[in-house]
Specification:
Blueprint lengths: L5 H11 L14 H17 L4 E7 L3 H7 L5 E6 L3 E2 L3 E4 L7 E11 L2 E12 L10 H6 L4 E6 L13 E6 L2 E7 L9 H10 L9 E8 L4 E2 L5 E6 L3 E8 L1
Parallel strand pairs: 1-10, 3-7, 4-13
Antiparallel strand pairs: 1-2, 5-6, 5-10, 5-11, 6-7, 8-9, 8-12, 12-13
Helix pairs in contact: 1-2
The structure holds 2-oxoadipic acid and magnesium ion.
Length: about 240
């Protein structure tokens, strides 16, 4: 009998919304191998008709590094089915143990950011207890599950340091600053281009980049109304339905 590959295991975990045990040593310590698993994992989604629409960076803030115990910047792939309209619903039944985090998104055209927007990312580790090593989270497409982008705005120098709030049901759950993201979230664009070089990522002409969470992530509970507020940029929101 053939053992399913890590990509097949993670794909099935996402499709069935059932967590799987960490791979541990079977994945190997090499992050390059983990990115090969991620490529295989996302290829399965593209083969089922999904389209690549962008990239995400992860662990670009200290708050996230501390929360997850992983200290390297990582990147993952975003597909069209992960996109949630602003104010739209997230079906908890298709997730394992989702969390939400406030982000900044960039619209990238010909290698440069042409617009910026507030965003909420939904992350949903396919591993039991939302715990993983660096290679494990990279293989799992950096926990990518969903994202909402608010209204696009021009990119101004102020984007370097704007206040960020994550509100749940109108109450402030997390507070941060865009400066927590790589010191200046605009760095995310060059960083994404650098990190993905040689990885054969076939992005459309205009694509979305999630620069990474400005604060720790918060569990997404049934009925919750979630809103990210970025000073000067506006809001992005979603709600969780059971
Ligand atoms: C990994 C993904 C991290 C971010 O914005 O830092 C991430 C995780 O925490 O599960 O998306
Ligand atoms: Mg994120």
């Amino acid at each position: 009998m053939n053992h399913p590959t890590p990509a097949a295991v993670l794909d099935e975990a996402q499709r069935s919304a059932q967590a799987v045990p960490q791979f541990g040593d079977t994945l190997g310590p090499d992050v390059a191998d983990a990115y090969a698993v991620q490529a295989d994992l996302v290829r399965r989604r593209l083969d089922r008709g999904e389209r690549l629409v962008g990239l995400k960076l992860g662990l670009t803030s200290r708050a996230k590094m501390l929360q997850m115990g992983v200290t390297d910047v990582i990147w993952g792939r975003l597909t069209d089915t992960m996109r949630i309209p602003d104010g739209g619903a997230v079906d908890l039944g298709t997730h394992i143990h989702p969390k939400v985090e406030p982000e900044v998104a960039f619209l990238v055209e010909r290698g440069r950011a042409t617009a910026v927007a507030p965003a909420v990312e939904v992350i949903d580790s396919r591993y039991v207890d939302f715990r993983f090593t660096l290679p494990e989270v990279v293989a799992d497409n950096t926990s990518a599950a969903g994202f909402v982008v608010g209204a696009w705005q021009p990119v101004t120098p102020e984007v370097a340091n704007l206040g960020v709030l994550l509100e749940i049901d109108g109450r402030v759950a997390q507070v941060g600053s865009t400066a927590a993201i790589l010191g200046d979230p605009r760095r995310a664009v060059d960083e994404a281009v650098r990190l993905t070089a040689g990885h054969d990522v076939d992005l459309p002409e205009s694509w979305v980049l999630l620069a990474g969470a400005a604060t720790a992530a918060v569990p997404l509970r049934a009925g919750a109304h979630v809103r990210a507020v970025v000073e000067q940029l506006g809001t992005a929101s979603l709600r969780a339905v059971a």
